[in-house]
Amino acid sequence: MIRVLLVDDEAMVRAGVRAILANEPEIEVVAEASGGREGVRLAGSHRPDVALVDIRMPGMNGLDAAAEMRRSAPGTAVVILTTFGEEEYVVRALDGGADGFLLKTGDPRELLLGVRAVAEGGAFLSPRVARRVLNSLDHARSTGRLDARERLAGLTDREREVLALLGSGLSNQEIGARLFLVEGTVKGHVSTILKRLGVRNRVEAAVLAYEAGLVGEGRGRDA
């Protein structure tokens, strides 16, 4: 069972997200919060697997709430809910170690894919979010698609396969199943990929995979 915390100041948004998740027997919404501080408190008391956090809320905003959750409930994966026009916020959330980004107006299937992916240790980027933030990321400001491809040129064929699936939101276990590798081997590949690409986490690696046009070569899900 994947236990989810909803943190959004808009009751209608919470109701919509809750309705989508309610159709999945393996996902349970264990708590809801209408603000960041309440969300942090509930994350500490409920220890959910996934926290879906609105990026902009009065009082403690989603960025600060997510950062505090990372400290007080490190076992909780944080997915940021965003809208178009908030790329700067997304970049800050990425810097804070968010595990995923979803558009509030996106396809409900992306919500389900994202929750499952981060609950299983993966990272998830709504494709439309990824495209909008690429030019805002540090490595994308001064470089482009060509440079991204050059950075990936140092990877082995197997590492490129792993990165493509990672960029599609698959967890280590799912990547292993797809490539017939044990999970420990996948973890080793991911660690090497992060080091060689000079990125800090799976989400940054996924963004770079998008920028290089790698996602799509090894996609295991429709996103």
From TrEMBL:
Residues 148-213 form the HTH luxR-type domain. The keyword Ligase does not apply. SUPFAM superfamilies: C-terminal effector domain of the bipartite response regulators, CheY-like. The keyword Transcription regulation applies. Signal peptide: none annotated. PANTHER family: TRANSCRIPTIONAL REGULATORY PROTEIN NARL-RELATED, TWO-COMPONENT RESPONSE REGULATOR. This is DNA-binding NarL/FixJ family response regulator. The lineage of its organism: Bacteria, Bacillati, Actinomycetota, Actinomycetes, Streptosporangiales.
